[in-house]
Each structure stands twice: as structure tokens, then as C-alpha cells.
Amino acid sequence: MARSTTGKRSLSVGISGLFLLVILSFIHLTQGQADYTVSQLVKEVWVEGRIQDIVLSLRLPRLAIGILAGGALAIAGAVLQTLTNNPLASASTLGINAGAYFFVVVSMIFFPSMLGDFPFLVALAGAVLSSVLVVTLAGKQMEPVRVALTGMIISLLFASMTGSLQLLFENQTNGLFLWGSGTLVQLNWNGVSFAGPMIIILFIFTLGLAKPMDILSLGEDVASSLGQNVRVIKLLAWAAAILLAATTVSVVGPIGFIGLMAPHIVRMLGIRGHLQIFLQSFLWGSVMLIGADVLGRLIQPGQEVPVGAMTALVGGPWLLYLAWRTAKTHSRGDRQMGGTLKPVKLPIVVAIVTALIVGVLTLALSYNGSVWSMDWMKPVIWNFRVPRVLTAFIVGVMLALAGVLLQGVLRNPLADASVLGVTSMGGAGAMLLLVMIPSIPVEYMPLGAVVGAAIALGIILVTSWKNNFQPMLVALMGIAISAFGSAATQVFVVKAKLAVAAALVWLSGSTYGKGWEDVQLALIMVAILIGPAIYLTRSLDTLTFGDDVAAGLGLSVKTTRVWALVVGVAISTAGVAIVGTIGFVGLVAPHIARRLVGFRHLPLLVVSGLLGGLLLVTADFVGRILIAPKDIPSGLVVALIGTPYLLYLLRKMK
């Protein structure tokens, strides 16, 4: 009886999905600059003429690739969620899409003929590298939060390197911005003829893995006891997911969220067993992607809205829901913070770090990449270089202070404004402002950044309040917000019809063109926020013993977490408003400081602040002289330095 009921449910779900796909496909074929109705389509598509030419050469290939890509992404997501035992897993959240896109950008710049001849192999190389990094760094247990954090950091690494290349080689990569946001635009049948056979073969191959994956989902120990070769099955499943992701990225770009949502919707509809899940996921992934493309062209008829924009708008709230549900079903997730048990005396550390700061400041003020000058009062140095260097130092201090507070309150050594989504949503808010008001000067972008960061903080406060700001819940919500903000930012860059490089410089974090008014603003913000940060250090010290002990000692755990979150986000938002979306300083500086002065938060705050200033000034100096007279945004330099260090730390964390 149960099997009969399951079969009827699967049949009804499949018929419903197929009906939706047919309706959406008819609408999809009528959309575009060449206007005609559904009745005209049905009557005239069979005879030679304008409508047949448009349908066969442009719209049918777009529809076909949408159906194939949506199905492929959904199946890849279903496979990855079982393999990693992580409901947040998909090709986008694990960094697979970001790795594939990075390799495509590299190939476009340095090996354009290879990209033209072998686009799939180029994307595949990046997808494989990302997957290897995730598996290696996440560990055998594949703990959900660890996997999600690993995927996010790997995505940030590839996004940073991609952003650097797009800034340095703007002319070569201009054509990739729309494609990089995910688009179904097809000018002929070449994409379909390449991707179609690949996806169909991989789809059939994945269906053959359905029964072994049913057994694998019971646990590796159970699967092994039943005679399954777990290693081979996992290797084959990883290969199928990677190949599916690489195939879609090589043709339509990195489209997110479909692989995350479709398998969950299928399961929510009552579908069980991997065979039915794979079949239904392919169908509903196609429905969702075609539906997103239809919606995008309904919103702005006659203009090309990247389909990645629509999947991000729908998928962001869905990811937030999944993050909330995942956190509710797992342990609290408190972690060892990685500090030394034999701290160096604070005056010694401060003296050494201060000496390093003086040396780097002297170097940064005296050298412009080609000429040395110790005359810092010269107008060109005093009016441009000195405020730029001082702004970098003060903002570096601010970002490091925010990192200390956020890591302390979340009991997670990988927490900062980037992980909470504040930086990402700040960038999205700034770009949205430019999209809504195209004529607004770039100088007003910080207003949008403040609003975006405030929204991120508001979402975290609302969703976490009832759960006493459980660290795992806050971290997972931050990951979801960050993924949504990054996807939205990429789309807004395409939609904002302005010089892309100008927007990317701000989004990448840059102290370029900062003056004395920026120094004054930074000093004012530090003066306002440093007091509350210092006041919170004693409460954060108490929290290191755990929530129960802290509550027993009379500490209001919820109140402490709220204020630490608010102050930490306020400090990081002030920094973002001044220099753009710089990440990693708040991650790296507290780690280094913790290994020098231990766990106590007051000395940690002092040393982290100094190290943050040192790190950002160094990054700004390197970015300024490395390819002088061109300028690499300091945020990208920090990311390129900080990400490998964080991946190393993640690998060492238990």
C-alpha cells in the first residue's frame, strides 16, 4: 500500500511539473523583442517565415538549454546534498561554480584559443579543483557547518582572484559580465548540441547510482556492512556532480540556487528514494530555471535580465530558511578558538607590532612604485598619499576590532563581517542604489552599503532572537545572507549601466583617492565605537566558558550577544562605508593575535587592531606598487593573502 501511495504521489508530482513546464515553455517562446502571440506561434511556427526563423534560431535553443541546465543543476545539487550530508550543498554554495568561472576568466585572458576550442575542459578544471579543496578541507565527517564555511571561503577565494583579473584586464573580460551572472542567451544551436548529449548521458549515469546512494544515505558504516564499496560510489557520484556543474557553467555561466532549491522542493512534495528524487529534481529544476527566465523578461520586457538575478532573488530567502532549519537540528557548534596557552607579554607584542607598523608606514609614505621621497610635506604626498595610508590603517584597525567581537560572540574562529553577510549585503545595497538611481555619484555608494548591512543585521536579529543567538544558527544565517548578497551584487553590476571598473574597484575595497575628510570620518567612527567594544570584552571573556557557566555567573547571554553583534556590525559597516567591501582583515588579524596573546579579549582587541592596521596598510602598499602606475584594490590583495591562511587554519581545526 505504501509503495502504491508513493508511486501515485510521484506520478501526480511529475504530471504537475510537466504541465507547468509546457505552459512556461509556450510563454517563454513568445517573449523577446520580436513580438507575437501564443496563437500566432502555434499557427505560423510550422511554415517558413519570420516567426519560424526567430523560434528555430534564437528562442528554441534558449528554451532547450534552460531545460537542460536547470535539470543538470538540480541533479548535481541532489547528489551533493547526499554526498556531504548537508542540506545547504549545491554547486554554487560549495564553490564549484566559482572555481569553474575563475578558470574561464583565466582562459579568456591568457589562453583565448583554448577557451574557444575547449570551454568544457576549462570549466571542468576549475570545478574539479574547487571540489578537491572542499573534500580535503572539510574533513571526513563532512559536518554541515564546516562544509558550508569551507565552500563559502573557497568561493570568496575564487571570487577575489576573478575580480582582480577583471579589473586588470577589463577589455578582455567585458564580455563575461553578463555571462558571469548566468544567462540563457543562445545565438545558435552550438551550446545545446554540446551540452545536450553530455547532460543526458550524465543524467542516465546518475540514475544508475540511485540505489547505491539510497544505501549510502543510511551511513557509510551501514553501507560498508551491506557490501557496498563506499569509496567507489562516492567517487562516481562526485564525478557526476562535477561534470554536470562544469557542463552548465561552460554554456550558460554560473547560475546559483537551482541546485539548492529543486531537490528540497521535491522532498517537500513527498518524494522519497534517490531514483524518484533524481527524476523529479531534473523536471522541477527545469521548471524553476525556465520560470525564472520568464519572470525576468516579464519584469523588464525587451531587456536582458540575467537569469541568475531571478534565481538569486527567489533562492536567497529559501537558503535562509534551509540555514535556519539546519541549525535547529544540529549541535550548538562552539569551537576551540585556536589561541596559545602561553601568551607573550602584551607590552612586548605591542612594541614589536608598533615597530613593524612604523616601518611599513614609512615605506608606504616614501615610495610610490618608482620614486623614493622622504619629504612627506610635498603637496602631492601630503594631500594624496598620507591620507590614503592613514585611512587604510584606521579602517584596518576597525575591521580587526569587529572581527574580535564577532568571533567572540559566535564562538567561531571563522566569523567576521564577511561570514555574517554584512560585507556582501553592503556591496549589494551599494550596487542597488546605483541601479535605482543611475545618475547618482559613486561617492554616495556608502549610503546603500549602510542600508544593506543594516538589513543583514536585521535578518540575523529577527531569525536568531528566539534561539538565544545560538552560534551555529547565526553562522549559517550569515552564510545564507552572504551567498544571496554576492549573487545580487554580480547581477547589479551587470544591470548598472556605468563603467564596470569603477563599481568593481569600490566593491573590491580600495583606499584609492581617499582624502583628509576620510581620515577625519574614520577617526570619528573609531572614537564613537571603541568605548562599547572595550566595555564588551569582559562579557566576552565570560562567554568563553560556555553559555551555561556564563549565565550561572550572572551574565545575560542574549543581551551580550545582541550588543556584541550590533557593535561589531556597526564597526565593520563604518569601515565598508569608507573604503568599500574589504573582507578577511577581521578574520586574519584576530587569529594571529590569539596565537600571540591568548584568549582574553582586551589584549586581543589591542593587538588585533594594530595587526589589522598593519595588514591593510601593507596590502594597500603592495597593491599600489606591484603593477604601478596601475592600482590593485587593497581588498583583493588582502583576500589573496588571507584566504590561503584561512584554508590552512580550517584544515587544522578539529
TrEMBL record:
Transmembrane intervals: 63-82, 94-112, 118-138, 145-169, 189-210, 235-257, 277-295, 307-324, 344-365, 386-406, 418-437, 444-462, 474-507, 519-537, 562-590, 602-626, 632-650
Keywords, in A-Z order: Cell membrane, Membrane, Transmembrane, Transmembrane helix, Transport
This protein's record includes keyword Transport: yes
Keyword Transmembrane helix: yes
Major localization class: membrane
Membrane topology annotation: Multi-pass membrane protein
Subcellular location: Cell membrane
PANTHER family xref list: FE(3+) DICITRATE TRANSPORT SYSTEM PERMEASE PROTEIN FECD-RELATED (PTHR30472:SF37), FERRIC ENTEROBACTIN TRANSPORT SYSTEM PERMEASE PROTEIN (PTHR30472)
Family membership: Belongs to the binding-protein-dependent transport system permease family. FecCD subfamily.
Stated name of the protein: Iron ABC transporter permease
Organism whose genome encodes this protein: Sporosarcina quadrami
Lineage start: Bacteria, Bacillati, Bacillota, Bacilli, Bacillales
